[in-house]
Write a structure and sequence with these properties.
With 303 residues, the chain is α/β, with parallel strands linked by helices. The chain has 2 domains: 3-173, 3-Layer(aba) Sandwich (Rossmann fold), CATH 3.40.50.720; 177-297, N-(1-d-carboxylethyl)-l-norvaline Dehydrogenase, domain 2 (Orthogonal Bundle), CATH 1.10.1040. Helices cover 44% and strands 21% of the residues. The protein contains 12 helices and 12 strands. The model has no long low-confidence stretch (mean pLDDT 97). It binds nicotinamide-adenine-dinucleotide and ketopantoate. Ketopantoate binds at residues 185-186, 189-190, 200, 240, 244, 249-250. Nicotinamide-adenine-dinucleotide is lined by residues 6-12, 29-31, 63, 75-78, 80, 83-84, 101-103, 125, 127-129, 131, 262. It is an enzyme of class 1 (oxidoreductase). Residues 174-293 form the Ketopantoate reductase C-terminal domain. It comes from Pseudomonas tohonis. Its EC number is 1.1.1.169.
Length: 303
């Protein structure tokens, strides 16, 4: 069964190359004819791992091609996911399976609504990769990817292919809890690093702010039916701040590079959920206002 991979950026390339190296059939789905030509000119996809570069010339195609897709790895940003899947929807074969690698929450529901007959498997990953050139990706941090399906407990038959590809993963019956937990960690850390202009470790100078946000986030998680995700949130945020002290958060890096953030799927999603439950979270809501003002000053999208 072919793995079609849409989103040939950091994480998509990392998955595509590892799957292909394991001998599994992979086809890249590129945005338009210009990107396809650029890919061909680059001679393939390059992964840099422990300072060694390996280039693989994987077959590539356009979303507008007509061959059916049975299995799709969707590895674009959350704000691109729905449109990307809408464009591919006519190609999805009966019983198609999608693996959604987006961070945060909100994009998965939007995708699932576009393809009601497909199985959507949600993922939450702590692996780290970045692009240091066109079609060139650096494997920056080992991590783990949780996969799960909120509508079915049984794992897909192909999970062993990830094992073969050396992609560290686990199947969980409660992927939403994992996604909420990661969203809460990202909400407690990332916006503050942007507003204070600091590495994750710099938040050790702002313990009261971190504590207030964690208390509000834990209350929100419980109200949203995610008590496990709320458990010891503040302690874990403290551990992540320490363990990643030297790193800049992903949102900090996006803002510094003038890239659109995934704010609507992280802090924006949390505040919208609070509003739906008529829950007033003054610190979280103030943080969203400040972050949007910060983005507006830099001419970056507010969603
Ligand atoms: P990225 O920006 O590096 O790559 C996304 C790619 O998708 C880009 O190449 C873009 O051109 C492509 N794309 C967008 N719309 C498309 C379309 N319609 N057709 C074809 N291609 C399209 O993003 P990333 O860093 O790999 O992140 C992907 C998701 O994974 C995000 O939600 C991110 O938060 C999450 N994530 C990333 C990392 C990481 O280390 N990079 C770690 C954990 C989670
Ligand atoms: O996931 C992260 C990110 O930077 O996006 C961490 C390191 C957990 C900080 O929230």
């Amino acid at each position: 069964m072919t793995w079609h991979v849409l989103g040939i950026g950091s994480l998509g390339s990392l998955w595509a190359i590892r799957l292909a190296r394991a001998g599994l059939p992979v086809r890249l789905v590129l945005r338009d004819a210009d990107r396809l030509a650029a890919y061909r000119a680059a001679g393939g996809l390059t992964l840099v791992e422990q300072s060694r570069a390996q280039r693989l010339d994987l077959p590539a195609e356009l979303a507008t091609d007509e061959s059916p897709i049975q299995r799709l790895l969707l590895a674009c940003k959350a704000y691109d996911a729905e449109a990307a899947v809408a464009a591919l929807a006519p190609r999805l074969a009966p019983g198609a399976e999608l693996v959604l690698l987006q961070n945060g929450l909100g994009s998965q529901d939007a995708v699932a609504a576009r393809v009601p007959l497909a199985r959507c498997i949600l993922a939450s990953s702590t692996e780290g990769a970045f692009r240091d050139g066109d079609f060139r990706v650096v494997f920056a941090g080992h991590g783990f990817t949780w996969l799960g399906d909120p509508h079915a407990i049984a794992p897909p038959a192909w999970l062993n292919e990830l094992e073969r590809a050396g992609i560290p993963h686990g199947w969980t019956p409660d992927i939403l809890s994992r996604l909420w937990r990661k969203l809460a960690l990202n909400c407690a850390i990332n916006p503050l690093t942007v507003l204070h202009g600091c590495r994750n470790g710099g938040l050790a100078e702002h313990p009261a702010q971190v504590q207030e946000l964690c208390a509000e986030l834990a209350g929100l998680l419980r109200l949203c039916g995610q008590p496990d995700a709320a458990q010891d949130l503040h302690d874990e945020v403290g551990r992540v701040i320490q363990a990643t002290a030297a790193n800049y958060s992903s949102m900090y890096q996006d803002v510094a590079a003038g890239r659109r953030t995934e704010i609507s799927y992280l802090l924006g999603y949390a505040c919208a959920a609070a509003e739906r439950h008529r829950l007033v979270l003054p610190h979280l809501q103030a943080l969203l206002r400040q972050l949007r003002a910060h983005l507006a000053e830099r001419g970056l999208p507010l969603d």
